[in-house]
Write a structure and sequence with these properties.
The chain is an alpha/beta fold. The chain is 33% helix and 24% strand. The strands form five sheets. It has an eight-stranded mixed sheet with strand order 12-11-8-13-16-17-18-19, sandwiched between helices. A five-stranded parallel sheet has the order 2-1-3-4-5, with helices on both faces. Strand 6 and strand 7 form a beta hairpin. The two termini are 30 Å apart. The relative contact order is 0.09. The chain binds cytidine-5'-monophosphate.
């Protein structure tokens, strides 16, 4: 099966069948469009009982097709024309009835016919009552579709529109949108293992206080997601952050720099790449107090010692993985970044201005490697992470990693 779009913009045919979850498909279309994916809506008659074509048409900016016999399609070949030039078809929601049709190669309306006539990958997001989901007929049909190479996304268990609780809830719009974006990414790191540190570390001073660095973890988590999208196995060693790890990553939670180093040592031997995004605290209290230090009114003295440099440790191993460092500077970005890259002996360093990126969803980055500097103009952190993964993959390919 081939994707045939000529430009870089990915084209998705979004098919809606009859289910309450159709309302989530409207939000899904909105997110996909926002993420730069071209969406063509097709709805079955039952889907129109749940949301109107006008909603999907307004969100996608294109007429929504329903009818196999649509006279506005010049050659009356809507079922062929619509599935051509698509990079994928996603059916969301996919009802039990539609799944049964797909599994049996039936083609009695526009959507089922164009699925049968397609030459691109098919993804489905089932949504149905839990008894319908568990019915042996549905189980058989899904097994058949899996064997036929159809990608099945979800469902999940939870409270259902019918009031029952169980398996059959469609994935949320943002989860489906992430899966679609991941599906469209080139698999540049297939078979590779990437170890990533992310977030801040926290160094205790006493039972309730400590020092830390400002870091939301967003960039490190975006790198983890982009690496997964590119087909890598990802181990994400994370300091304390309020983020969910991307689906598929092995997450190891740590608090202090010493814990982070221990976790890195545990995983490093089998890593092909190490991307050190964490904002590791440079110092820790020499002797953290087990109890809360009482306020006296006077000044107090605390003694700090340097933390180990995790990245420097990994980069100076006898056989280091491909090492990538991050440098958040507040001034003299280029000079400081380049000096840091040389000091830590890194093939690649990603530099940014701390005041421009910490906590934000967008960043402007500059990559420094042996060939010089490569600016990555302002974009969302996930987009920057994808560009970074592409750069890492090309350097690794040259070095036969
Ligand atoms: O803090 P600094 O600017 O030196 O950080 C540069 C790079 O080194 C970052 O990639 C960071 O994750 C890493 N680092 C580390 N261990 C430290 C300090 C920094 O791994 N103790």
């Amino acid at each position: 099966m081939t994707g045939t779009s000529l430009s870089n913009t990915k084209r998705l045919l979004l098919g809606l069948t009859g289910g309450v979850a159709a309302y989530k498909a409207a939000e899904l279309a909105r997110i996909l469009i926002r993420d730069g994916i071209e969406v063509q809506g097709v709805m079955t008659e039952s889907a129109c009982r749940f949301i109107g074509t006008a909603t999907l048409q307004a969100l996608t900016g294109k007429p929504v097709f329903m009818d196999l016999w649509d006279a506005s399609v010049p050659d009356s070949m809507a079922h062929i024309d619509l599935s051509r030039n698509m990079d994928a078809i996603l059916i969301a929601p996919a009802s039990a009835d539609f799944i049964a049709k797909l599994a049996n190669g039936m083609a009695d309306d526009l959507l089922s016919t164009l699925c049968l006539a397609r030459d691109c990958p098919l993804l489905i997001a089932p949504a149905m009552n839990r008894q319908m989901w568990e019915n042996p007929a549905t189980r058989r049909n899904l097994f058949t579709l899996g064997r036929d190479g159809v990608t099945i996304l979800g469902p999940v268990s939870g409270l259902q529109a019918c009031g029952e609780t169980g398996m059959g809830r469609m994935l949320e719009a943002h989860e489906l949108a992430e899966t679609v974006s991941a599906f469209f990414q080139p698999k540049l790191l297939q078979g590779k293992r990437m170890l990533i540190t992310a977030g801040p570390t926290y160094e205790a001073i006493d039972a309730v206080r400590g020092i830390t660095n400002l870091s939301s973890g967003k960039m490190g988590y975006a790198v983890a997601r982009a690496a997964l999208e590119a087909g890598a196995e990802v181990i994400l060693i994370s300091g304390p952050v309020c983020l969910d790890a991307p689906a598929g990553a092995k997450r190891v939670n740590v608090v202090s720099a010493q814990e982070m180093l221990a976790a890195v040592k545990n995983e490093i031997s089998s890593a092909d790449m190490f991307v050190s995004v964490a904002a590791v605290a440079d110092y820790r209290a020499i002797k953290p107090n087990k109890q809360k230090i009482k306020k006296t009114g006077g000044s107090i003295m605390l003694e700090f010692i340097p933390n180990p440099d995790i990245l420097e440790y990994v980069a100076s191993l006898p056989k280091p993985p491909f090492c990538v460092g991050f440098a958040a500077e507040t001034e003299n970005l280029e000079k400081n970044a380049d000096a840091k890259r040389r000091k830590k002996k890194l093939p690649l360093l990603v530099a940014n201005l701390a005041q421009d990126v910490i906590g934000f969803d967008e960043s402007t980055l500059t990559l420094f490697d042996n060939e010089g500097k490569h600016p990555l103009l302002k974009a969302s952190k996930i987009e920057q992470a994808r560009r970074l993964i592409k750069h890492i993959a090309s350097l690794c390919e040259k070095q036969e990693i």
